[in-house]
Amino acid sequence: MSPRRISPASVTRLLGPWRGERVGPAYGQLADSLRLLILDGRLPLDVVLPGERELAQTLEVSRTTVTAALARLRDDGFLDRRQGAGARTRLPGGPGERGAPGPLAGVEAEGLLDLASAAPPASEAVHGAYAAALSALPAHLPHTGYAALGLTSLRQTIAERYSRRGLPTTADQIMVTNGAQHALALMLRLLAGPGDRVVIDHPTYPHAIDAIQRASCRAVPVGLPDHGWDVEGVAAAMSQSGPRLAYFIADFHNPTGRWMSPETRTAIAAAAQRTRTTLIFDETLVDLWLDAPIEPYAFEEPESGLVRLGSTGKSFWGGLRLGWIRADAQTILALAPRRASIDLGTPLLEQLAAVHLLSDDEAALSARRAMLRSRRDHLLGLVRARLPDWRVASPPGGLSLWAELPAPVSSSLAATSERFGVRLAAGPRFGVDGAFERFLRLPFTLPPEDLAKAVDSLVQACARLRPSSSPARASLGAVV
After folding, report:
1. Cis, peptide link before residue 225, omega less than 30° from 0
2. How confident is the model at residue 472 (pLDDT cuts 50, 70, 90)?
3. Are residues 401 and 333 located together in one domain of the fold?
4. Is residue 96 situated within a structural domain?
5. Whole domain around residue 58: which residue ranges?
6. C-alpha span between 286 and 279 (Å, rounded)
7. Cα–Cα distance between 428 and 34 in angstroms, integer?
8. Backbone angles phi, psi at 311, to 5 degrees
9. What digits encode the pLDDT tens for the residues 90-135?
10. What is the pLDDT of residues 150-168, one digit of tens each?
11. Lowest-confidence range among 72-86, 172-186, 389-403, 415-429?
12. 20 to 30 Å CA-CA from 8: which of 23, 143, 340, 366?
């Protein structure tokens, strides 16, 4: 398969305002900016850069400037140039590691403030939902309790939620699963095999990368620019790598918190249709808007090839362990026999509780949004005041801040912070090839007093790190 190529326009968007930010000649500034893109994972590895003439024209600089910048990157080991094949991105020491998963989130964390998990406690509505489920349970006891696709009443309730948001849906387009992660694993089992490519935005949810890799598939990352998504880069990745699937967190993206505009969704869906790539939108965080209500579905849904994953985990409680797949009816029916080798259905009591929660959810979700909005603003203020050299924006929704550090020390900081009472998920857990050492996810799911303690500990951990220290491989627990 031919190597991936990135267009001059995509390189220009990723670079942003690179001129004048650093001292020195233009070629040095350009080389430094490209080097940072490679280190941060925004410019993936093993991607062929545009030709020098094309790049010079798009950047509006001389070809000599581009030639000198690329020569410096080759000398430093960030480009591999082969005769007639163009300059291909690489790391001097080869691809880095994401880090082996350590203790599970929430386990063996006594005495530690857990910022590795972006998961809030249970909504107050959960207890009442289980009480209602217990009352409804006797009517189901005469039956086997197995339902590969899920209870009809729950599938209908989920379908009605989609219809209220402007996407007409019927129960036969829904399969109930044991969370969104289970749903993704089922889709990989149905549609992909060893060696198949899966396009992802980069960074992304760590366990999605884990699921892709454990299915013996290869993740094809497309770096997120400073704002929005790189639509042209996504389209190029789909056309050049021949992927079976593409996976995106469009609604309050984990870990960045950004939201994908309707225009971007339309363009990405069109690119997927052109290349016959099944597009998966993970909507796990869709209920957690914090600044403004989300817009209804804004483009005509194709008859097939677009799959949506949902979950109650972040909206209500992770302990509920219930999610779903929305797809065309034929795909839903095809999933059932694949599922049988993994499990025989979602527990009945949880499904009955979910019917109760999802049938009348606005009051519970409003309270949850208010809590998260307050904690987001509190943590944002603490970080900006106590760690002023960290760059962090206010996300419009979701559960976390995505902080850019002043140096590539994310893994070292994660390793050091436990000595000061805080567990972190280092940036490389959210990417492939060791990217994102300059980034750290900071969930705002803990109570305000715990967030204040956590930031105090981060200040102490940063003071302990020497600026020249090399990144250590932290013990990276399961990340939610």
Report:
1. no
2. very low
3. no
4. no
5. 4-89
6. 17
7. 19
8. -165, 150
9. 877 666 655 545 444 544 456 789 999 999 999 999 999 999 999 9
10. 999 999 999 999 999 999 9
11. 72-86
12. 23
Phi, then psi, of 85 in degrees rounded to 5: -115, -5
Same domain, yes or no, for 187 and 277? Answer: yes
Same domain, 307 and 436: no
- d(CA 247, CA 199) in angstroms, rounded, equals 6
| Mean pLDDT score across all residues of the chain | 89
* The pair of three-digit structure tokens given for residue 229, joined into one six-digit string: 């998504």
What pLDDT shows up at residue 367?
96
Number of H helices, E strands in the chain: 15, 15
Task: Identify the residue whose tokens are 């490519």.
Answer: 197
Residue type, 128: G
E strand segments, 342-438: 400-404, 422-424
What is the residue whose two structure tokens read 């603003």?
A: 377
Phi-psi region of 472 (alpha: psi -120 to 50; beta: other; left: phi over 0): beta
Residue keyed to tokens 């025989």: 344
293 in the same domain as 182 = yes
Please tell me whether residues 213 and 152 are part of one structural domain. yes
Q: Mean per-residue pLDDT for 4-11?
A: 86
Q: Domain check: are 428 and 311 in the same one?
A: no
Split into its structural domains, the chain has a count of 3
pLDDT of residue 308: 97
> Where residue 314 sits, what CATH number does that domain have?
3.40.640.10
How confident is residue 471, by pLDDT bands cut at 50, 70 and 90?
A: very low
Amino acid at 230: D
Q: What is the pTM of this model?
A: 0.83
Q: How many CB atoms lie within 10 A of CB 131?
A: 11
